[in-house]
Amino acid sequence: MTAAPPRGPRDRNAALRRRNLWIWAFLMPTVVLYGLYTVYPIIASYWYSLVEWNGFEAEQRFVGISNYEAVLADPGFWNSVWVTVVFMLLVAPARIVLSLLLAIVLNSPKLPFAALFRTVYFLPVVTTTAIVGVVMQFIFDPSSGPINAALQTLGQSKGINFLGESGLALLTVSAVYVWKFFGITMIYWLAALQTIPRDLYEAATIDGASAVRTFRHITLPLLMPFLLIITVLTIEDTFRAFDLMQSMTGGGPFFGTEVIEIYIYRWAFAASIPQLGFASAAAVLFGLFVMVFGFFQLWAVYAARRLREATR
Asked: What angle do CA 11, 16, 18 make, to 5 degrees?
C-alpha cells in the first residue's frame, strides 16, 4: 500500500514545508555545534586581540592594536613564521612527489594485492598524531632508541640526539610528518589517476613507449589540473602540525621547531602568566596568513578547471 500523492498546490506546499522542517531539524545540531566551536571562537579571538587579558580575571582592558604591534615587534613571532615556512618547504614537496610515485605503482593493474598495500600505506593517517609523537620520542631516543641502536651496530660510537639538536630536530619531525600524512596525498593522486583512460596507456604500450615516456607525455600532462589543487591542499595541511610538533619537541630545542601554532599556544596557555590578548593577536595574524593560501586554493580550482577543459 502506497501513500496517495498530493492532490493540489496547497497539499504540495504543505509537504514541501514539512520536508524543509525535517531537513532543518537534522541540520540543527551541526549548525549549533559549528557556531559554538568554530564561529564563536573566531569572533571572540578578534575581540580578545584588542584587549589585555590573562584569562583568569574578569577585567579586560581595551588596548586597541597594541597587541598587534607587540606581536610584530617580537623576534620570537618572526622566528615561528620562519620555522613554519621552512617546515612547509621541507614536507610539502616530499609529500607530493613521494605520494605521486607510490600512487603510480599502486595504480598499476599488474600489481597484486594493490588494495592491501593502499590500506597499509594509509594506516598512519588514521593513527592518533599525539600517540605517534610519543612513540617517535622513544624510537629516536639517543640512549635506548632502536634507531641509535641500529646506528651503533653499524659502527656509530655515539648516539645521535635527533630531537635534541637544533639542526636535526626540524628535519626529524619533518620526516615523521611526511611518513604520517603522505597517505592522504596518495589517495588524492590515486583518485586523479583513475580519471586517465586506460586505452591511452594501452596505445602507448603498443607503440613501444617506455615507462618514462608514458609518464612524461600521458600521465603528467593529464595530472596537471590535479597537481595545482593537490599542491595547495598539501601546503594548507602543513599549517596543522601542532599536535605532532608539540608531542615530539614542544617547539624546542631553542625554539628550533616552534611553528606559529606552538608560539600561540605558549603565550596563551604555557606561559606563567597567560596573555590571551597577545596570543589572540598572533592567532589573527596567522589566520590572515592562512587566508592568503585560501585564495590560492580558489585560484587553483579555477586554473585546474581551465586546464581540464583544455586537455579534453
From this structure: 95
Distance CA 289, CA 227 (A): 22
The alpha carbon dihedral of 136, 140, 143, 148 has a sign of positive
What DSSP state is assigned to residue 62? E
Matching residue, cell 639517543: 142
Quick one: pLDDT at residue 43? Answer: 92
CA distance 182 to 179: 6
Longest Cα pair distance anywhere in the chain, in angstroms? 88
CB atoms within 10 A of CB 138: 11
Q: What is the C-alpha R_g of the chain?
A: 26
Q: How far apart are alpha carbons 132 and 235 in whole angstroms?
A: 21
Dump pLDDT digits (tens) for 230-288: 988 898 889 888 999 999 998 888 899 999 999 999 999 888 888 999 999 999 999 98
Cα–Cα distance between 66 and 28 in angstroms, integer? 39
CA torsion 81-86-92-97 (nearest 10°) is: 170
What pLDDT shows up at residue 2? 53
Give the percent of the chain with pLDDT over 90: 41
Please state the pTM of the whole predicted model.
Answer: 0.85
Give the pLDDT of residue 156. 74
| Burial annotation 222-258 (CB, 10 A radius, 16+ → b, else e) | bbebbbbbbbbbbbbbbbebbebbbbbbbbebebbbb
The DSSP result for 153-216, as a single string, is HTT--S---TTTSHHHHHHHHHHHHHHHHHHHHHHHHHHHHTTS-HHHHHHHHHTT--HHHHII
Cα angle, residue 219 at apex, residues 217 and 225 outer, rounded to 5°: 110
